[in-house]
Amino acid sequence: MDSDAGNRKRALRAELRERRRNLTGPERDAATAGITRNLVDLATDLSAQSIAAYLSTTAEPNTRPFLNWAHRQGIRVLLPISREDGLLDWTTGDGESETEGLYGLPEPVGGLLGPIAINDVDLIVVPAAAVDQTGMRMGWGRGYFDKTLGSMEKCPPVYAVLFDAELVDEVPREKHDQPVDGAVTPTRIVQFT
């Protein structure tokens, strides 16, 4: 890892975590409503029949209302399960049953489909700490989604979910970092490609 980029990433992540901690309940509720509306619009516009997404933590923008909507619509939703080797397995969990996975993150309960199950989805929704104006995504430092996206031969549209202030001019970049096609915030859908 480039030590300068790594140091800048750590500092930016710490700042973003603090901003997220300082959001009020009403601000989080408004953000959830906006993100859900925009994710529904995105999935509808893409006519997505299968989506790879994630179970949000309490500190992240809330993806759960969107996941519930997708299940009600009959959209197949793949959710990740972190592996110790740095890869992601996938499952079609029911969106309600979950357990604590690696690093204390919420993970779905369901039969494992393996890392290549994501190859058949129409849309990938990923978490992000920040995304810059070119579409470069900065995650939280474990590299799971960078490895997954970097290994795909034919990747469907990939959208990061974040708060409005986390769309920034530039994020520190390293060789393994993967860009996204767009970002979904409480107030807008941004396309980079």
Overall description:
With 193 residues, this protein is α/β, with parallel strands linked by helices. It has one domain: Rossmann fold (3-Layer(aba) Sandwich), CATH 3.40.50.10420. Helices cover 30% and strands 22% of the residues. It contains four helices and twelve strands; from the N terminus they run H-H-E-H-E-E-E-E-E-E-E-H-E-E-E-E. The strands form three sheets. Strands 3-2-1-6-9-11-12 form a seven-stranded mixed β-sheet. A three-stranded mixed β-sheet has the order 8-7-10, with helices on one face. Strand 11 and strand 12 form a beta hairpin. Helix 2 (25-45) packs parallel to helix 3 (64-73). The longest helix has 21 residues, at 25-45. It is globular and about 45 Å long. It starts with a helix and ends with a strand. The model has no long low-confidence stretch (mean pLDDT 89). Substrate binds at residues 55, 60. One of its GO terms (molecular function) is 5-formyltetrahydrofolate cyclo-ligase activity.
Q: How would you concisely characterize the structure shown here?
A:
With 193 residues, the protein is α/β, with parallel strands linked by helices. It contains four helices and twelve strands.
Largest sheet: 7 strands, mixed
Q: How many strands in all? A: 12
Uncertain stretches of 5 or more adjacent residues? none
- Give the CATH architecture: 3-Layer(aba) Sandwich
Helix content: 25-40%
Q: Give the C-level CATH assignment.
A: Alpha Beta
CATH third-level topology: Rossmann fold
Taking the alpha carbons of the first and last residues, their distance comes to: 27 Å
Q: Which percent band covers the strand fraction? A: 15-25%
Q: In terms of structural class, how would the helical and strand content be classed?
A: alpha/beta
Q: Going by CATH, what is the homologous superfamily?
A: NagB/RpiA/CoA transferase-like
User: How confident overall, as mean pLDDT?
Assistant: 89
Rg, alpha carbons = 16 Å
Number of domains: 1
- In DSSP terms (H or I, runs of 4 or more residues), the helix count works out at 4
